Amino acid sequence: MYENALxxxxxIELFSADSVGFGFSEEEIEQxxxxxxxxxxxxxxxxxxxxxxxxxxxxxxxxxxxxxxxLKENFDPFALFVSETHPxxxxxxxxxxxxxxxxxxxxxxxxxxxxxSGTIYDSISGLPLAGASVSIPGFDLxxxxxxxxxxxxxELFTGKYRLTCSRQGYQVPPEQTxxxxxx
Length: 183
Fold this sequence. Notes:
It is a single chain. By secondary structure, the chain is of the alpha+beta class. Among the domains are: 2-58, no CATH class; 111-180, Carboxypeptidase-like, regulatory domain (Immunoglobulin-like). Helix content is 49%, strand content 20%. It is built from four helices and six strands, in the order H-H-H-H-E-E-E-E-E-E. The protein has helices at 2-14, 16-21, 26-81, 87-101, and strands at residues 113-119, 133-136, 141-144, 150-157, 159-166, 176-180. The strands form two sheets. It has a four-stranded antiparallel sheet with strand order 3-2-5-6, with no helix packed on it. A two-stranded antiparallel sheet has the order 1-4. Helix 1 packs antiparallel against helix 3 (26-81). It is elongated, with a radius of gyration of 32 Å. It starts with a helix and ends with a strand.
């Protein structure tokens, strides 16, 4: 659009005598040229701002990547180390880390996260038990088994997890422990 306006301004100036004959004043022709020039300057400035913004985004991405690396290498092991003595801290820290990991699940590597899954069976009939609640109490995570007795907790960080299971009308089985380790 800018190039078209520039060509029109050039054509008008080239044939300025004819333009005045068509009802355009010399002031209007000059004002059009000034407007086109201002439009070009605004386009250039906008392009520069977009380039600056893109560079800033790349810098921010790099800083976030560095921060996540520091968290993974330093704070994650620390949180895991104090998980038994300070379970509330570990729970809150893990929930915060999981919340940030869910924003871009496609970019999270398998080394950062894992899953816990299984099937719940009726101990008497041996059949899969649908509708059983499976929970990880320290993290306030709960899921319900599907029609095949299957459950899944995904996007969990490395560490030990306690699992409990319940369903009305059934005896509560003993608490189980699962551990997610890095590959």
